[in-house]
Prior knowledge:
Distance between the termini: 15 Å
Oligomer: single chain
Radius of gyration: 21 Å
Number of helices: 12
Shape: globular
Amino acid sequence: MRLIQFDPSDKALLKRFIKLPYDLYRGHPCWVPPLIRPMRRQLARGEGMQLGGGPFTLFLVETDGRDVARALAGVNHVKNRQHGKNEGYFSLFECIDDREAARTLMNGVLGWLENESVDFLTGPVSPTNGDDHRGILIEGFDEMPAINTPYTPSYYPGLLESLGFEPHLDFYALKLIFDQKELERVERIVAYGQKKSGLTVRPIDLKDVTGEVKAIHQIMVGAMQASWEHLEIPTEDQIRAEFESLKSLIDPNLVMIARIDGEPVGFVAGLPDYNQVLFHLNGRMTPLSALKYLHYRTRITRVRMFMQFVLPRHQGSFVTPTLYFRLYQGFVKKGYTDMEGSTIAQMNLSSLSTIRGVGFKTRRIYRIYHRSIKAGTGL
C-alpha cells in the first residue's frame, strides 16, 4: 500500500480524493452523493471556519492502482484558542473494510500532526465546522440521512477502535413522532406562555437580512457554552456567509426567531431535506440533473431542524417549546410529513430533554473519536 500526501492545489489528486466515496458507496441505497463542484472549490480554496482556522493537508492510500482510503488532517488554531486546546483533527474519512488501509492512512495523519506539535487527534469532524461529514454512524444504518448529515458503513466504528481510537462525543438525530394529544398539550403550554411573558416568535424576515443575522449572532454568542468544545463561535460575517450559501434552500416558514420585548432570545432553523433531491443527481449539475432538481424539489417530504439556540436565562422556559411549535406550524403549512432534529451533542442535556419532551425519538447516532498523539509512536 502506498500513502500519498498532497496539497489541494494538485488538481489530479484532488479529483481522486473527491471521487473515492463514489466508488466505495456505488449503488448504496442510503448514501447521498455530495455535489462535486462545491467540495472541490472548498478544498482548493480552504474555505469555511474549520479549514480557514489553520493548516490542513490531504491523504490518499493506493493499492494495486486503486484508491482505498482518504482523509483530511488539519489544525484549527482559532477553535483551539477559544477552548484552550492543543488538538488536531481529521475529516472526510473514508476507507474500505481493511485494517491495513486504515492503519496506513492514520499513520500518515498522526505523523503530520506530530510535526504540528498537537497533543490529540479528534474526528471525523466537519470541514465546515457544521454537521456535514461529522462523526461515524453507529446507529440508524437503514435510512437515508437528512441534508448535511453523513452516512457511513457499519464497519467504521470497529475499524477506528482497532487502531486505538476511543469514543469522544456522540450526536443524536431525532424524529418527531406525531402524537395529537401531545401536540395539543404543547399548544396549550405555548398559548399560556406567550400570554404570560409577552413572547413573540416570527419567521425570519428575508427582507431584513442584516437585522436578522445580527439577532442570530447575538443569540449564538450568548447561548454557546464554553464546555461545548466541538463548536467554534462564529463571527457575524461568517453567519452572513453561511446564510448566503443556504439562501436558495431556505424556507422562511422553517426559520423562527423568538423575542421578548423586542430583544432576541432564541431561534430555531430548519431546512427542507434536499438530500431527497441530491440523491438523484450523482454529484453533478448538468442540464439533465437541473431538470431532475426542479422535479424532485417539489416532492420533498422531510424537514431537518439543524440549529436551535436559546439564551441560558430563558432555557427551561416557554421559549424553546414555543420555537418548536411555531416551526411545526410552518412544517404543516407547507405539507411536509417527516421532521428531524439533528444533530444534538450528548452534553446538550437541555436541548435533548426539551426536544424529547415535545415528541422526538432517536433515529440515528453519530460518534466522534479521539486519541492522544505521542512522539515517535505509530499504529
